Amino acid sequence: MSQTTFIVGVDGSPAGDRALEFAKERAKLLDNSKLILCYIIEWSPYSFQTAEENEKRHQRREEEIAIAKERILDPAVTSVASAGFDVEGVVQHGDVAEILDRIARKNEGSQIVVGRVGARGIKERLFGGVSARLVSSAHVPVTIIP
Amino acid sequence: MNFIKHIFGIVFFTLIPSIALAQAEAGSFDQKVNEIFASSTGWFVSLIFAPLPGTSFPWIVMWLVVAATIFTLYFGFIQFRAFGHAISLVKGDYSDPNDAGEVSHFQALTTALSGTVGLGNIAGVAVAVGIGGPGATFWMILAGLMGMASKFTECTLGVKYRNEYEDGSVSGGPMYYMTKGFKERGIPGGAILAIIFSIFTIGGALGGGNMFQANQAHAQLVGITGGADSFLSGNGWITGLILATIVFLVIVGGIKSIANVTEKVVPFMGVLYVGAALIILIANYDKIGWAFGQIFEGAFTGLGVAGGLVGALIQGFKRAAFSNEAGVGSAAIAHSAVRTKEPVTEGVVSLLEPFIDTVVVCTMTALVITISGVLMTDPNTGLFILDGSSIKTVDGSSGVQLTSSAFGSSISWFPYVLAIAVVLFAFSTMISWSYYGLKAWTYLVGEGKTKETVFKVIFCIFIVIGAAAQLGAVIDFSDAMIFAMAVVNIIALYVLMPIVKREMNSYFERLRSNQITRFKGGEVEEN
Predict the structure, then answer these.
(1) How many domains does chain A contain in total?
(2) Is residue A1 part of a domain?
(3) How high does pLDDT run on average in chain B?
(4) How many domains does chain B have?
(5) Within a domain: A3
(6) Confidence grade of residue B353 (pLDDT, cut at 50, 70, 90)
(7) What are φ and ψ of residue B370, in 5° steps?
(8) CB pairs under 8 A between A and B
(9) Would you say residue B472 has pLDDT above 80?
(10) Residue of B nearest to A108 (CA)
(11) Contact present, B146 and B69 (Cβ < 8 Å)
(12) Kind and range of the H or E element at B292?
């Protein structure tokens, strides 16, 4: 039987934890399953920066990735692994909805699981939050945990 | 090195205590500084802006235009061939998703643009059209299109020879391609050129990139708060101190939020400016054909401006060169932070810079001034009426005031928006040039927190001086410094252009044979 891969969005928030719990429960019911925990750092290539920020950007990026791994992703991966799951962690910069979908396609994920966060700010009210954009653009089924 | 420190030491300690006094006895202080500068630097200014024998054409403008023409021919009209590819690169079609979070082509381009789009596009164009007539616009556009090839050359080199440090930060610019590139070609003199270039860059940063900006921003603020009756009139130190405080907070205090706000507001202002110009053009659509007629006719006949055809040509060329900084070398510093394995890609992206700056924004200003009818013509002959060497205007204004009244004749409240735009443009130009100056400074004196802070503090002090005083000679000198950068930089570009050509041919060959991965917008979607 082929492997079933769950793509789980984690961000250290209670909503992210609920998504992870849900994915674990589903994965437990399957013989051959894998969890890919993703921490996405919101980032746009079209933002405006000063020359000094540009100069240090590579360094900042490394720091952001290290912090995300250290504080959120690695502890989550360790605890999931110790519970006996096949698990992998991914940190990436970019648009959350776009990157989760890209990771799902690349790893032949069978579904994406994310926690729901209420709409924050005007931008999200106008253009939809991450979960809404994910639902409308993803190439695989999406489960949103309330 | 010590010599430079010495010079700055003198300027630093003589000027600081004098600022307060200067306000009380403005005349004598200004005069004194003017005299000292004029007597010691006048020869340099005259040398840089000297006209070609028998003409009134400054040789430095010819130097920039000839270089742009040579690069255009040498790289086979790269600015037209690669224009579409430049847009794909900026859109991120060739950006590896695994590099997300690094500096994108878009960010490198907009950072460089915020240093060039500014007062030159608003005030400078008005000066050019005010003296050279609408015909100057034609020559300005032509020089802008040629300048794209100069930018391509310097920015490709900027990325190719940048320094990448262990902590992942990067430093690039003409001083690095002068030393490393010359060494690679086995040609001596690179290190000396790099030092000369750095000295001129520091001068240009403190002058044209700082004092001139502060001075003009202050003039605009006085203009809209009541002219001579304004509380700011004669109190430039207030504007200067406020600007200096904000710049200090950003560059020394590391208060990024202020820079972030400007970096978002400045592009918005740019769009607003072009948008307002477009609205005026659309409202006067019946005159657009006529305006282009004036531009073409003026370009070849002069339509009665001082100096005729040649007068229009000089003004147009001069404005393009002054505005987009192609060949000056400053952009090579700004563009070199991009994340790319192919230096040519950043060169290609950078050629959009003179296009946006000169061909789009400057042309908008020129069209609005032409269409608004603020330039007076003789109804019988159709030729412009002269007032001295410049064209007579309806309200007698010139420079930024001329742009202001041209926009104001269609949209009455626009002069206020324009004033805010001018101050913000000046601010973002200062932030950009503080960085260029700092890079040159650390190249000379070495890197280190204290050394960097010394330069940043000096930079802030010069803002106050620039806004407070009417230092004509100082400003002439700083303009001359910026163009002196071009003298040194273009020599280096001539020496290194075969390297750029090799890079260019190799890159475009691989692009054609699909060895360069397209990640987005291609026929095959890569994951």
Answers:
(1) 1
(2) no
(3) 85
(4) 1
(5) no
(6) very high
(7) -65, -50
(8) 94
(9) no
(10) B527
(11) yes
(12) helix B285-301
Nearest alpha-carbon partner for B330 in B170, B486, B161, B479: B486
- Cα separation, B101 vs B213, in Å, equals 33
Is A139 near chain B, with CB under 8 Å? Answer: no
Q: Is the pLDDT of residue B381 over 90?
A: no
In angstroms, rounded to a whole number, what is the distance separating the alpha carbons of residues A37 and A20?
A: 8
**B106 and B263 Cβ atoms separated by less than 8 Å:** no
Cβ contact, residue pair A49, B107, below 8 Å: yes
Burial of B502 (0-12, 13-18, 19+ CB in 10 A): exposed
Tell me, what CATH number does B316's domain have?
1.20.1740
Measured between beta carbons, the chain B residues lying within 8 angstroms of A55 are 169-171, 337
Tell me if A60 is assigned to some domain: yes
Q: Establish if A2 touches chain B: CB-CB under 8 angstroms.
A: no
> What is the tens place of the pLDDT at every residue in B60-111?
988 999 999 999 999 999 999 999 999 999 998 998 888 888 899 999 998 8
Share of chain A above pLDDT 70, in %: 91
In a domain, B253, yes or no: no
DSSP character at residue B99: G
pLDDT band per the 50, 70, 90 thresholds, residue B6? low
Whether the CB of A74 is below 8 Å from some CB of chain B: the reply is no
Does B313 reside within a domain?
yes
Residues 6+ apart with CB under 8 A from B219: B400
Q: Is residue A2 situated within a structural domain?
A: no
Residue A15, domain CATH: 3.40.50.620
Does a structural domain hold residue B218? yes
Which range marks the domain in which residue A56 is found? 10-145
- Spatial distance between the Cα atoms of B82 and B67, rounded to a whole number of angstroms: 19
Where helices occur in chain A by DSSP H, the ranges are: 14-28, 51-68, 74-82, 96-106, 121-127, 130-137
Contact B168 A62 (CB under 8 A): yes
Mean pLDDT of chain A: 86
Say if residues B161 and A46 touch (Cβ distance below 8 Å).
no
The predicted complex's ipTM stands at 0.85
From the list A50, A59, A92, which residue is nearest B169 (CB)?
A59
Q: Is residue B244 part of a domain?
A: no
Contact A34, A57 (CB under 8 A): no
Cross-chain Cβ contact B114/A48 below 8 Å: yes
pLDDT, tens only, B298-312: 998 878 777 788 888
Each residue of A26-74: pLDDT tens digit? 998 988 899 999 999 988 888 888 888 888 888 899 999 999 999 999 9
The parent domain of residue B138 ranges over 54-226+261-445+477-512
**pLDDT band, residue B497 (cuts 50/70/90):** very high
Alpha helices (H) along B325-358: 330-335, 343-350, 352-354
Could you read off the pLDDT of B106-133 as tens digits, one per residue?
Answer: 999 988 888 888 778 888 888 889 888 9
Question: Does A102 contact B at CB distance below 8 Å?
Answer: yes
Q: Which residue has the tokens 């991120």?
A: B92
Tokens 């409240």 sit at which residue? B413
Report the C-alpha gap between B470 and B479 in whole angstroms.
15
Phi, psi of A44, deg, nearest 5: -125, 135
**pLDDT confidence of B314, banded at 50, 70, 90?**
confident
B205-222 pLDDT tens trace: 998 888 888 888 888 888
